[in-house]
TrEMBL record:
The keyword Hydrolase applies. InterPro entries: GH, GH_1_N_CS, Glyco_hydro_1. This is 6-phospho-beta-glucosidase. Signal peptide: none annotated. Transmembrane segments: none annotated. GO terms for cellular component: cytosol. GO terms for molecular function: beta-glucosidase activity. Belongs to the glycosyl hydrolase 1 family. Keywords: Glycosidase, Hydrolase. GO terms for biological process: carbohydrate catabolic process. Coiled coil: none annotated.
């Protein structure tokens, strides 16, 4: 069996808006996520146009990494992390996104976080934008629908590269950029929701707005990549996608062709642009059928061609089935789309567990792009029980991660160039999909609850020591 490479980047992943807290301290402005209330699996969170009194906004405190970063990074180091994926809160650096001068206190905070990682030999992996477009840009421009936001992002990205590239080698331009192909992505990823006060499951589907917003994100990403390549040649720039593996529900050719089309526009469209530097051929028919016209400016195609990423990263949580039969219940069970697979079990939140789908996905992605890959999100959201002695016996999480690591190892044996693995929510944090704390992912339990109570104390789960052993053996010992 071929082993993981010697410099394999084991670690964990987080997002600023889901664990950082301190939403209005030290000059930080409100982001789109700061305007989202809490929710649950059965009661979707809401986007509000103002901060409503007596309403819980989970991002406002989250787990308060802002004041616990030294403690948390020390725990990551104890597990043996080689890398730590975190995002930077855009509004901590540019409170409205439109300032010409960055907020120094915000920059200093991330200096401290990065320096703490470096102290322990942990490689920072920074996501430049992770579901936190400044809310002021939503109000003024309807988010990424307006081309003016490109300059705001590029100024922000250049600030990060200029400030941190002496200590940070890896940057991702956007988190799960292909979430913008779905209506919910219009909120968190694109901010194309000006004036809306609405539950997340009631977001209007406006393809023209979403795909125009995606075009502007493609241009912004390419400009940031080009700036890094021109000025910081040691820096590597990556993309980041949701990879929603899809299988035909049956061998009916209609299911097979339909699956292929769904895979193209969900899984390949954004990365084809960011990795290959041009819009894919199959997008033309999709745009025509949906009545979408992408407005480009002179030079856009050249910008895309000159700003391709160095490595590909993705989140993988589940797979889906596709059926052309309109009587099938598409969307039931899985968050993204599709029909439950009768051969798979599901998590407490209905996400189907498919470790072999990860091996399949890795092979599909690598055969298409032939650049290094990294799994930067993968994990099991579950209802953990904190025992009286502070322990959490999460054997179900260990089983989930073990099976997925085994399949990553199979993919490496297949010949896939896999550079790292950062399971999602390495410390408990707010769920992006539901806005709740009860859906826990981490190796570290945080005493924070859905009603906003809790003393924020940290304790190790059983998975903490298990993952520590996995890292120490470079994935050899998974027992």
């Amino acid at each position: 069996m071929k082993k993981f490479r010697d410099d394999f980047l084991w670690g964990g992943a987080t997002a600023a808006n889901q664990f950082e807290g301190a939403w209005d301290l030290d000059g930080k402005g409100p982001s789109i996520s700061d305007m989202c209330t809490n929710g649950s699996h059965t009661n979707p969170k809401r986007l509000t146009t103002t901060i409503e009194p007596n309403t819980l906004y989970p991002s406002h405190e989250a787990i308060d990494f802002y004041h616990h970063y030294k403690e948390d990074i020390a725990l990551f180091a104890e597990m043996g992390f080689k890398t730590f994926r975190f995002s930077i809160n855009w509004t901590r650096i540019y409170p409205t996104g439109m300032e010409e001068t960055p907020n120094e206190k915000g920059l200093e905070f991330y200096d401290n976080v990065i320096n703490e990682c470096v102290k322990y030999g942990i490689e920072p992996l920074i996501t430049i934008s992770h579901y936190e477009i400044p809310y002021a840009l939503v109000e003024k421009y309807n988010g990424w629908y307006s081309r003016e936001v490109i300059d705001c992002y590029v100024r922000y990205a250049k600030t990060l590269l200029d400030r941190y590239s002496d200590r940070v080698k890896y940057f991702l331009t956007f988190n799960e950029i292909n979430s913008g192909t779905m209506p919910m992505g219009a909120v968190l990823s694109l901010g194309c929701v000006k004036g809306l006060n609405v539950a997340m499951n009631e977001i209007p589907d406006e393809p023209q707005i979403r795909y125009q917003g995606l075009h502007h994100q493609f241009i912004a990403s390419a400009l940031a990549v080009k700036y890094a390549h021109d000025n910081y040649p040691k820096v590597k720039m990556g993309d980041m996608n949701i990879f929603a593996t899809m299988y035909p529900l049956t061998c009916n050719p209609d299911d097979v062709v339909g699956t292929q089309r769904a895979m193209q526009m969900m899984n390949w469209f954004c990365s084809d642009v960011q990795v290959r530097g041009e819009y894919p051929y199959y997008a033309d028919r999709f745009f025509e059928e949906k009545g979408i016209t992408i407005k480009k400016e002179a030079g856009d195609d050249e910008i895309l061609k000159n700003g391709t990423v160095d490595f590909y990263t993705f989140s993988y949580y589940m797979s889906n089935c596709y059926s052309a039969d309109p009587e099938k219940q598409a969307g039931k069970g899985n968050i993204i789309m599709g029909i439950p697979n009768p051969y798979l079990k599901a998590s407490d939140w209905g996400w189907q567990i498919d470790p072999k789908g990860l091996r399949y996905s890795l092979n599909e992605i690598y055969s298409r792009y032939q650049i290094p890959l990294m799994v930067v999100e993968n994990g099991l959201g579950a209802k953990d029980v904190l025992e009286e002695d502070g322990s959490v016996h999460d054997s179900y999480r260990i089983d989930y991660l073990r099976q997925h690591i085994e399949q990553m190892r199979e993919a490496v044996a297949d010949g896939v160039d896999l550079m790292g693995y950062t399971p999602w929510g390495c410390i408990d944090l707010v769920s992006a999909s539901t806005g709740e704390m009860a859906k826990r992912y981490g190796f570290i339990y945080v005493k924070k609850y859905d009603d906003g109570t809790g003393d924020l104390s940290r304790s190790k789960k059983d998975s903490f020591d298990w993952y520590k052993k996995v890292i120490a053996t470079n994935g050899e010992d998974l027992d």
